[in-house]
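Appendix B, Record 12. Input sequence as logged:
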Amino acid sequence: MGKKYNTALVNIDLNKDYPLDEALAIVKESVYTKFDETVDLAINLGVDPRKSDQMVRGTVVLPHGTGKTVKVLVFAKGEKEKEAKEAGADFVGAEDLVEKIQKGWLEFDSAVATPDIMGLVGKLGKLLGPRGLMPNPKLGTVTFDVGKAVKEIKAGKVEYRTEKAGIVHVPVGKSSFDKEKLVDNATAVIKSIAKAKPSSSKGKYIKKITISSTMGPGLKLDVSKLKTV
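Logged structural output:
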């Protein structure tokens, strides 16, 4: 560990479970880098993601956004192409975009598609799937309501998905955000994940939550005091 990281640890009790607002105040005070670090939640769930009926996956719109400028691409034609552009999409098209992506272009952060275009977009599965960029109806990114989808993504819609170890990682904003905004964003994420509990999950569902900035130490949250409904 570096000297600055160890300095950040001085006022942190790694064995303590912190209330959310106190943890976020410490996270903000502990930032020692020159860039605006992302604040992340790591949520350990009591699920077995190897079982399809226990895979926790969904989206949530952060009340105060992510603090990041998101480039949105939309696969659409005709009136839906116009709707996407008016909603603020950065790139809109169909065959032209598919061809461009097949040649290696991937300068966007999120993709939306209308259902009638998915036969065409399916050709990009091997390119977009591993990068988490493939439009998905379960996540609201395969829809005829492209205007709403684009606006939600631009406003701070984030996706979460359980990893192999049963952990979900979700960004909740930037370290420059006011503490109250980070509390609101984190609470929205926790409530969404609590609501997404699989019916087949037995025992304790939210086992542990840690919050940290990009380069800072992680603080354990007091799960019993969190608003999950």
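The beta strands are 17-18, 38-45, 57-61, 72-75, 91-93, 110-113, 157-161, 167-174, 206-213, 219-221.
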